[in-house]
Design goal:
mainly alpha; 149 residues; 64% helix; globular
């Protein structure tokens, strides 16, 4: 079995800071997302709220610009979060799906704004395959995520 070495970025992002878009660490942000779901009595989203960013500390990195501003980036964190939970039989398929796709709407919008056509098209195809009720849930979850920034 491969030994996993946790880097300083893991602990810094988990407990201290993320980046300019988040005033909270990953841990506190996660608790706040769960709080907003609980406040709205949206109980089915609480497990996803607690799990949606568990991959962030593992993928945290700083490019040259990040180093200058003491910020962190988390590319593909939603897929890593999903990979960490996908085989757990105690976690519902709904929760796994919400964790995996929680960044889909925002990612699509960012790709469009930055003119990354290939990424935009790929994310659009994934979003188009999801049913309308789940898309509404993604929008609600995104609201909780934004409130917790």
């Amino acid at each position: 079995m491969k030994k996993r070495v946790l880097r300083k970025e893991f602990f810094i992002t988990l407990f201290i800071k993320q980046n300019k878009w988040h005033r909270y660490s990953v841990f506190r942000h996660t608790i706040m997302v769960a709080y907003y779901a609980l406040r709205d009595k949206n109980y089915k989203m609480i497990p996803a709220a607690l799990l949606h960013d568990i991959g962030k500390p593992y993928v945290a990195f700083q490019d040259e610009e990040d180093k200058l501003t003491a910020q962190y980036s988390f590319t593909n964190h939603e897929e890593i979060s999903y990979q960490l939970i996908k085989n757990n039989p105690l976690i519902s398929e709904y929760t796994k799906k919400l964790v995996r796709y929680h960044y889909l709407i925002r990612g699509k919008n960012v790709a469009k704004r930055k003119d990354k056509i290939g990424r935009y098209n790929r994310l659009s195809k994934i979003l188009d395959k999801l049913d309308d009720n789940f898309k509404k849930d993604l929008e609600i979850f995104l609201k909780y995520d934004d409130l917790a920034k």
